[in-house]
Backbone:
């Protein structure tokens, strides 16, 4: 099966017929390997390097393959924002540089605040976390849903 990627300068809903000329052809691999990276956790997103983000045991997690799209790798607890109370951290998106969008919630409240985790080197496993709303505001729900190539959440 071949997947064709089309570059089109026109809005997709207006001129679909004008975008039918293929710009590049991508052939996906013939086989895939499913790799368990954590137990009692769930995934949030994957990038083109093969890094996977998600959550488990109230932690935001990042799995990074040893080689691009490899099946062996390491699991990193990204932490979260400092809060007064019991935090629940979860990662929801990752871009191709390895920047992660996530959220910190305080258990037993409706308080949620987004964060950005940026690796020290592209696709690295150590980095820094930045709060977007300062301290997690009590009883306010501010949530990240994803991240783009520029690190915008």
Residues:
């Amino acid at each position: 099966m071949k997947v064709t990627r089309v570059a089109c300068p026109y809005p997709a809903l207006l001129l679909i017929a004008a975008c039918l000329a293929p710009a590049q052809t991508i052939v996906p691999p013939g086989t895939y390997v499913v790799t368990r990276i954590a137990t009692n956790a769930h995934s949030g997103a994957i990038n083109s390097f093969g890094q996977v983000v998600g959550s488990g045991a109230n932690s935001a997690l990042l799995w990074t393959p040893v080689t691009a799209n490899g099946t062996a790798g390491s699991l990193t607890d990204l932490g979260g924002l400092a809060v007064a109370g019991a935090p629940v951290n979860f990662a929801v998106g990752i871009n191709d540089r390895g920047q992660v969008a996530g959220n910190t919630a305080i258990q037993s409240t409706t308080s949620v605040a987004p964060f950005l985790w940026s690796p020290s080197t592209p696709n690295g496993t150590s980095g820094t976390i930045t709060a977007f709303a300062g301290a997690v505001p009590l009883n306010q729900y501010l949530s990240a849903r994803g991240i783009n190539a520029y690190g915008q959440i």
Q: What stands out?
A: Confidence is low (pLDDT under 50) at residues 1-23. Residues 86 and 107 are 6 Å apart (CA to CA). The two ends are 34 Å apart (CA to CA). The first strand starts at residue 3 and ends at 5.
